[in-house]
Amino acid sequence: MKIGICNDHAGVDYKFDLVKYLTDKGYEMVNFGTDSKESMDYPDVAHLLAEAVESGKVDLGIAFCGTGNGMAMTLNKHQGIRAGLAWSEEIGELVKQHNNANVLVMPARFIPFEEVVRITDAWLESSFEGGRHQRRIDKIPCK
Ligand code: RB5
């Protein structure tokens, strides 16, 4: 499975650490984020990740910024993206089971890296439940 990852300056360390963790687990990682801690604008990389997920260049995406909100707001402007912000393992699981999030967003400045790993594993290893949740996500795109 190919996973795109993006981050602003607030998420550089977690991006590198998570790329190593997931690469070791056998995932193919594609980096769309900045590799520098110099201040930059998260939309510049969020749109690149969104386009890669929408076009099928990558299967799923992961994004980091300080709070996670800027990334989530930008990613969710794309009609084919369901970016879910998660800050606990249970939310990581639910954002797949109920929302079928194709991008996982995490707040790099507010959770330890151990939590990032737990959230990411929960999201990757859980399955969308379909049923009433399919009906609900079908109603998300703007007409
Ligand atoms: C950068 O300082 C910060 O604003 C950004 O990482 C993010 O939290 C925005 O939503």
UniProtKB/TrEMBL annotation:
Coiled coil: none annotated. Pfam families: LacAB_rpiB (PF02502). InterPro entries: RpiB_LacA_LacB, RpiB_LacA_LacB_sf. It comes from the Bacteria. The keyword Isomerase applies. Keywords: Isomerase. The active site is at C65 (proton acceptor), H98 (proton donor). One of its GO terms (biological process) is D-allose catabolic process. GO terms for molecular function: ribose-5-phosphate isomerase activity. D-ribulose 5-phosphate binds at D8, H9, G66, T67, G68, N69, G70, N99, R109, R132, R136. Belongs to the LacAB/RpiB family. This is RpiB/LacA/LacB family sugar-phosphate isomerase. It comes from Candidatus Cryptobacteroides faecigallinarum. The lineage of its organism: Bacteria, Pseudomonadati, Bacteroidota, Bacteroidia, Bacteroidales.
